[in-house]
Design a protein that fits this description.
The protein is an alpha/beta fold and 139 residues long. The chain has helices at 35-47, 60-63, 93-109; strands at residues 2-11, 14-19, 22-27, 51-53, 56-58, 67-71, 114-116, 123-134.
Length: 139
Amino acid sequence: MSRVATAAVTVDGAVVGEIGPGLLALVGASRDDDAHRARALARKMHELRIFPGPDGEVSAADLGLPLLVVSQFTLYADTRKGRRPSWQDAAPGELAEPLVDEVVGELRRRGAAVATGVFGAKMQVTSVNEGPMTLLLEV
């Protein structure tokens, strides 16, 4: 997850998701993930206090900032051995897509404005990282 000044995702030359100041979340799902973990991840992303506020750090929820959620199975690449990554820990598409949808759904239930990429599509993601501030979140 990155704190961004702007972020966008393009598929086949068309912008399908775009935000101004907010959070860019590249979301991967493992074979062990479930809907409960997806909702917990959404809550953590929304409530993580990583933005400067007048009295200390505040969250995207506190500021009403949007999120751009992009599915990315390659986050589960195992590169410990050899020169060819293995994605054996990544959830297959039929398991991962509903989990990414659950993250998006939970964020929206919480009142967040959420833009998305297109699951399984070849996407171009652009962003201007603010800070820079990029964190690996696990639940």
